[in-house]
Amino acid sequence: MLPEIGVILDAGTGIFRARDLIEIDTLDIFLTHAHLDHCIGLTYLFDVLCEKDVRRVTVHLAQDKVAAIRDHLFHPSLFPVQPEFDLKLFTGKPIKLRDQSKLTTIELDHPGGCHGFRIDWQGHSMAYITDTVASPTASYVESLRGVDTLIHECYFPDGWQDKAELTGHSCLTPVAQVARSAGVSQLFLVHINPLDEDQVEFDLSSVKHIFPNIHFSYDNQIIDV
Fold this sequence. Notes:
This protein is α/β, with parallel strands linked by helices.
């Protein structure tokens, strides 16, 4: 979440924490895709918005994901009372946000389709890449060129490349190579396999020679982007 401009990237189970971070009267939620771990938090919006003075909530998503949200996630037999939000489709053009910031969508390779995001504002930039197979030659790498902060998924440690390619996720070394190839300033790893809660299988020291400014992310972390 970028509280200053009211932007939330994806809506997983952790979205309940957004309630304490709301600073302005609008929320723009950008969904990378409609797999449940990225969208089920939309069903938490009644709690997120409770007693908050938010006048507009907009969920931005790709056209082919609308039915998954509108007709399936919020099917009356599953969720009979829908929280109030508007759906807005990606057009391929940059999306203007608050404070002269803009968000650009980035197509990613993942089963069922997925988008990453780059946000640029007032001399700063960040990118959010989740649910894709990292590679320094992947088509999305150029879209990350020179960002200050890259938040990139890393579901698997090294040695699990076959599983990563099967499921559309990333291993550690290729993510570090992506950061180096794109010339980013700092890298934070997210979407790590929850079965390895303490990251015991991940050895960041093994990739420091590729990209030294690499970090694990953790719950409630606040970073300067």
